[in-house]
Amino acid sequence: MLGPQLNEVILKIYQNCRDIPVHDFKDWAMTTVQSVIAFDSGLWANAQNVFSEAFNSVHLFHLGWDVIENYTREIGVENDLLAQAAIANPGRTMIMDEVMPYDEFTTIPMYLNHCRHFGLEQALCTCHVSSITHIPTAISFFRSDHDRPFSESDRRAKEILVPHMVEAMRINLFASLLGTEARQGEALAFCDARGVLYETTPIFNALVTAVCPDWRGPRLEPPCTPMDGVSTVRWSLNGLTFEASPCRDLFLVRAKRENVLERLSPRQLAVAEMLARGKQYKDIGRALGISPSTVTKHVNQIHERLEIRKREELVDLFNSKLH
């Protein structure tokens, strides 16, 4: 029975995922999975749009990069029947026999021009897609012996394991790249320079979907701007503020609900605070050492920046943001 063994593997992956270096994690995870599913090589890819665009990241397990080069040149996803089946059935692990008989598979160009050259005789392919961000992950296992097909038990085991592998990778990425910098409950995400997401925290998903109910990822919502890999980029959207800072090869995005009072300069904030406490213009001017006309100028700027018209609205803002 694979049940207890699967549970042990899942537990091991979660227990160790925070301690494995990020660049070693996928190799380590697939090696760990080999204790319950025998396979010779594998692929773990995060894609912008499930194979239909360039992979954001591709990790090859016991394979050379020429596999990807040949696949792109000779096959392409449109001719990859197993990949197409996995895309059409996210979450379900697909086995070649479900797509076509193996004897027939060995006669098509995909096998003749690609699979047999790289020892990809048997395959298990799974496409996992986040239900919220739509960040897609493809994980495939391969065997080089055409007489050793994957079993239905192998297929079911991989189908159970893949969501845990993906979640453990998310935990590993944040733990490895941020360490103790990440506070519990922060709204964080990793993206590339185009704003394409790699991983997100649950609180990030909750914040973004609260203000953008139709957001489906895997790109950040506009007006996210392209990033140059050096500068920190900030933008606002529907009451949220985002800050994207370079972090290794990616960008760390922090999201939070916008505090509109941060739009004010220190002097404007001082005026606004006293105004919200019911102070008169002359009292504010006396306290800050400025004339009543200057106070009036600041008040007009405060109204403009905060998009309010009345003192009562300012009081409400202070009550909601500062208390």
TrEMBL record:
PROSITE patterns: HTH_LUXR_2 (PS50043). The keyword Electron transport does not apply. One of its GO terms (molecular function) is DNA binding. Residues 257-322 form the HTH luxR-type domain. Keywords: DNA-binding, Transcription, Transcription regulation. Pfam families: GerE. SMART domains: HTH_LUXR (SM00421). GO terms for biological process: regulation of DNA-templated transcription. PANTHER family: DNA-BINDING TRANSCRIPTIONAL ACTIVATOR DEVR_DOSR. This is Regulatory LuxR family protein.
